[in-house]
Design brief:
180 residues; mainly alpha; Hypothetical Protein Ta1238, Chain: A; two-stranded antiparallel sheet; two-stranded antiparallel ribbon
Length: 180
C-alpha cells in the first residue's frame, strides 16, 4: 500500500469538493488546526491529571470534527458535519470546572513552571494561531460555522487553565511576567 498519490506534486491539494493550491488560506487553517491537535496530543502525553487528559481527548476529537467541516466546500458539506453549539457550552463549563481548583495571580504569568504546563502553553499558542486563521477565513467571505469561532475562542482558555492545573500538580506556582 502506498502512502502518497503524487497528485500534490504540482502544489495543489484537495478540499472536499475542489482542488486548490497548497497555499490556499483554507489549507493553511486546516494545517494549523492539525498542528494544534498534535500539540495538544503531545501535551496530553505529559499530563498527569486524569480530568485534564480526558478533556484534551475530547478537544482533539472536536478539532477533527472542525477540520472535517472546514475541509468541505459549502455545496458538498453534509449537515451532520457541523460543530454543535453544545460543544462550545461544554468547553466553557469544563474550563470553569477546572479553574475552580486553581489560584491565579491577576498579572500576566510566564509559561514554563513545569514540563506539563509548558506543553499545554505551547498548544495554547498554536490554537490561538489557528483561531486567527479561521477568523480570517470568515472575514474573507468563506462560510464558517459561528460555533467553530466560539469554540476556538474558548479553547485557549481551557488550555491556559489546564496548564495551570498541571503546574500546580507539579508543585509549581505561577511566576509573574513583571518583576515590579
Amino acid at each position: 500500500m502506498r502512502f502518497y498519490t503524487g497528485l500534490g506534486d504540482d502544489g495543489s491539494t484537495d478540499l472536499l469538493g475542489a482542488r486548490v493550491g497548497k497555499d490556499d488560506p483554507r489549507i493553511e487553517a486546516l494545517g494549523t488546526l492539525d498542528e494544534a491537535t498534535s500539540a495538544i496530543g503531545f501535551a496530553r502525553s505529559l499530563a498527569g491529571n486524569d480530568r485534564v487528559r480526558t478533556a484534551l481527548i475530547d478537544v482533539q476529537r472536536d478539532l477533527y470534527r472542525i477540520m472535517a467541516e472546514l475541509a468541505f466546500t459549502a455545496e458538498l458539506r453534509p449537515a451532520s458535519y457541523g460543530l454543535a453549539e453544545d460543544r462550545v457550552g461544554w468547553l466553557g463549563a469544563e474550563t470553569d470546572a477546572l479553574a475552580e481548583g486553581v489560584e491565579l495571580p491577576r498579572e500576566f504569568i510566564l509559561p514554563g513552571e513545569s514540563t506539563q504546563g509548558a506543553g499545554l502553553d505551547v498548544a495554547r499558542t498554536v490554537a490561538r494561531r489557528a483561531e486567527r486563521q479561521v477568523v480570517a477565513l470568515a472575514q474573507a467571505g468563506h462560510e464558517v460555522n459561528p460555533h467553530i469561532l466560539g469554540y476556538l475562542n474558548r479553547l485557549s482558555s481551557l488550555l491556559f487553565i489546564t496548564a495551570r492545573v498541571e503546574d500546580a500538580a507539579a508543585g509549581s506556582t505561577p511566576r509573574r511576567a513583571k518583576t515590579r
